[in-house]
Request: fold
Amino acid sequence: MSGAAGHREGSIRLRNGRALAYAEWGDPDGWPVLACHGSPSSRLERHVPDGETYRRWGVRLVVPDRPGFGRSDPQPGRRVLDWPDDVDELLSHLGVDRFAVLSLSGGAAYALACAHVFGERVRAVGVLGGAPPPDVPWPWPQWVPGRVRDAVHRPGVAAAFLQPVFAPIALRPALIPRYLQLRLNATDRRLLGRPDVRQVLSETFTEGLRQGSSSLAQDRALLFRPWGFPLSSVRQRVHLWHGTQDWLVPVALGQVLSAMLPNCSAHWFAGEGHFLVFDHAEEVHAALRE
Reply:
């Protein structure tokens, strides 16, 4: 493990033999926040330039690589509800009992699964730019062919369909932030134009895709089938932050998700986009401590 700039890394061997890699940022004695990274992303995902900022906030940010991302071994045939088992072993290794959960984008399903499984151990949940499970009809754009809508609800078929789609970005993942900067709204373009934000995203995308695109395809496919638990079972306070000009996960999906959660505080940011957390990280972590 390294301790530079409040950043520590490690790996554990799970009971089933798989390796699970993780990073920690901030204060080792601070309030634990388990981060469920986006898709694609990795244990290097954080929303401030370095871990010293988290240390000043009294936060211990723990970010594991999901199976097949970064340095974690793949897990063929996995489900969303398998993730809390990995998390439980990691938290036992780290000596963490109660904690908050935070997710960005495609990590929402995994954060909410942890809240469902761990119950009172999870004090609060944060969802940044997340979408709901397909338990309700998604507002698909009319241009998406019906056969594609059908395919994504069958994870094996969907993963096979998505892998060649994602293969090109796995070749040069460091360029993903520049690509996003060209196609997102003005606020996201401004954020992605900041060298510190672009560096963080380039690092985490590159690390996340070090094993190629197959795990990304599997991860995305799982989000389009029922997650295996009702959102009504998530009784903890869920803070949801969503930009009204999020062009990656439209705000309509965030509104559906907030309506499905029994104890949700929704924060809508007018004119902001998918990466708003880079401007609001301190208030996000303050809310998770309330």
The radius of gyration is 18 Å. Strands lie at 7-13, 19-26, 31-36, 59-64, 99-104, 122-128, 237-243, 264-269. DSSP finds eleven helices and eight strands in the chain.
